[in-house]
Design goal:
By secondary structure, the chain is mainly beta. It has one domain: Clam (outer membrane lipoprotein receptor (LolB), chain A), CATH 2.50.20. The protein contains three helices and 15 strands. Strands 1, 2, 3, 4, 5, 6, 7, 8, 9, 10, 11, 12 and 13 form a 13-stranded mixed beta sheet that branches. A two-stranded antiparallel sheet has the order 14-15. A hairpin with a 4-residue loop joins strand 3 and strand 4.
């Protein structure tokens, strides 16, 4: 058994083994200038095939230093996702061989040691993974940014002239996102909720890092010191089991 303590996965491009979800919420009002500037920033393109994303989260509900790293290699059709709590690796999912093979690593709840299982997916699920691994995580994130209805645009207090701040809010929740206009990608998100007195209080802060790599880092692939067992794919009738 593995102890599961992970961040909520990010970006709505889920592989067969790990569902992911976006973080944004919609707001019906809009300001044209903020919306058009955000769309223009998100239209910037890149040709790199290896995409690196790191999401660090701090929240009023927990104090652990938690972050998730996700790297997708669209050339070799592989992906690594790692979850850290307190700076210590808790879980790792590796999808490789063009989506056919999955390796899952986590901490044993008794010994605290990292242990893992590996399996080969049926052809239909492997083919689905292959399609997904061709999708750019960066471009999907840009689409999310473009599809939001931002209500304010301003320059944050920073020496970096490429940063832009946009805001969306309703009666209960406000989200401020700092965007790097050179890439069209978010750098930081701050979520605020109203307290009993109606004042905005900080609920969570996500620091986001996006970059392109020449290749998949070797240290994020299989760990030689972790015992990996070959098992049958945890599926039934070519569908993933729940849980």
């Amino acid at each position: 058994m593995m102890k599961k303590k992970t961040l909520t996965s990010f970006l709505a491009v889920p592989l067969v083994v790990a569902a992911a979800s976006g973080f944004f919420y919609l707001y019906t009002d809009r300001v044209v200038s903020a919306q058009s500037e955000t769309i223009a920033a998100a239209d910037k393109a890149t040709n790199s095939q290896v995409e690196y994303i790191k999401i660090s989260v701090s929240s009023s509900t927990y104090s652990d230093s938690s972050y998730q790293i996700r790297i997708r290699d669209r050339k070799n059709l592989s992906e690594v996702t790692e979850d850290y709590v307190g700076g210590v690796l808790q879980n790792k999912i590796i999808v490789f061989e063009e989506g056919r093979r999955v390796t899952s690593i986590g901490r044993d709840h008794v010994t605290g040691k990292l242990v893992g299982n590996t399996w080969t997916l049926p052809v239909n699920l492997a083919n689905e993974n292959k399609k997904i691994l061709n999708i750019s995580l960066m471009e999907e994130q840009k689409k999310e940014m473009k599809n939001q209805n931002w209500v304010k645009s301003l320059r944050p207090q920073s020496n970096d002239a490429s940063l832009q701040e946009v805001v969306a809010e309703n009666n209960l929740k406000k989200e401020t996102v700092t965007i790097d206009t050179k890439t069209g990608l978010p750098v930081k998100r701050e979520v605020f909720v109203k307290d009993k007195e109606g004042n905005w209080t900080e609920d969570s802060v996500r620091v986001e890092e996006y970059k392109y790599l020449d290749s998949m880092p070797m240290n994020l692939q299989l760990n030689d010191e972790v015992e990996i067992k070959e098992i049958l794919a945890p599926i039934k009738e070519d569908k993933l089991l729940k849980g």
